[in-house]
Amino acid sequence: MPGDLLLVPFVAGVLVTSVLALAGAGLFLRGSVWQALALGQWAAAGGVLASILHWPVLPVALAVAAAVMALLQRIPERERLPLAIFLAGLAAVTLLAANFAQASLAAAAWAEGQLYFASPNELWAVGALGAVSLLLWPGLRRIWLHAQTAPDVPATPPSGPWLRLTEIAWLVAAIVLGTMVLGLPAALATMLLPAWGAAYPARNLTSLLLWSQALAQAGFLIAWGLSLALDQPFAPVLVLVNMGLALGARLVAVRG
Asked: Is 184 in contact with 44 (CB distance < 8 Å)?
């Protein structure tokens, strides 16, 4: 593939990696990492359903993921319910793929990711989400500081309901767009593994965010180079690289 054709996918990948790393740090701080599994899987289910109905993919995926997030917010269960919803989404995608030829192709695309085929429209969408993330950063920081407890005392006063709703909407958009561009396994690995690895050397919120970004971007760049050089699919290479970096960060922090 010519180098100029890879510029748009590369920039889109760098931007969406930054947003997903930020979202992953927020989910880690709030103890809501299981939500990422459920939202990502149902975003894929929405995308597969849209391909069957010949509807716009991104709006349908966003709507389905938003409905799942609304359900998760109504029931205070951080692990078992999100896991059950994730499994239900996996079953839904499998059944759709088994009964519709178009769904089978769409399910493979959502699993493997479409990074190499990212269009300028997707680049603009990721860029807009990145800009919104910068604007929302002060409010997100306030929410995540309040989510930290030491041991049970909130670090900051609670945020207002509108700010909380804005954070939820931002998380849904980040997970859906990240899953659409990178694929479900790679998006989850970009959200969860750098934040997990960053938790060991980090000493405060700013340190956690910087370490998460550093590990996520390093993982993306290494996986990008390896997958192209070895002619391998990008998503599984990214998962393995991020796993190695997270384990390496943990090992270095423990020994230090």
From this structure: yes
